[in-house]
Amino acid sequence: MVGLADVFWVAASPVWCWGDLDSHGLRILGSARKVLPQVQFLLMDLDTLCQFQRLAVPEPSPHPGEVGCLNAAESLVLDELRRTGLRLEQEHIDWGWAWERTAAVLGGG
Q1: Contact 77, 21 (CB under 8 A)
Q2: How far from 31 is each of 37, 54, 61, 66, 80, CA to CA, in Å?
Q3: Which end of the chain is more exposed for a tag (fewer CB within 10 A), N or C?
Q4: Cα–Cα distance between 2 and 100 in angstroms, integer?
Q5: Distance between CA atoms of 81 and 76, rounded to whole angstroms?
Q6: Where do the domains of the chain lie?
């Protein structure tokens, strides 16, 4: 079976991840980074969480275990999510705000 890391153009390309801002979203990011170390996150940071915290809800079943392959900023987000018990689903983030931030990160704005 061929995985994404075995596809040359994927392994040689930047890869971006935008998932729910919760313990499982960060676990997925960490798992993806084990296979594709270049994976970077979008809108899964403390700024996004603070901006839209009023739309966050309790995370019903947080991932209790260790999450590997996170950088310091991502680990801080995970710590904050665990401290508050919250999750922010990506579809609750204002699309205009998300588009502006994404374009800036990817060099289009």
Answers
A1: yes
A2: 10, 28, 18, 11, 20
A3: N
A4: 35
A5: 9
A6: 4-106
| Segment (H or E) for 57 | strand 57-58
DSSP states of 37-52 as a string? TTEEESS-SHHHHHHT
Cα 77 from Cα 107, distance rounded (Å): 24
Residue the block writes with tokens 């999510």: 81
Q: By the 8 A CB rule, do 46 and 73 touch?
A: yes
CB–CB of 38/15 below 8 Å?
yes
Q: pTM above the 0.85 mark? A: yes
Residues of the chain with pLDDT under 70: 1, 108-109
- How far is Cα 107 from Cα 56, in angstroms, rounded to an integer? 28
Residues 44 and 17 sit within 8 Å (Cβ to Cβ)? yes
> Tens digit of pLDDT for each residue in 28-44?
999 999 999 999 999 99
- H-helix or E-strand spanning residue 75: helix 72-84
Mean pLDDT of the residues in the chain = 93
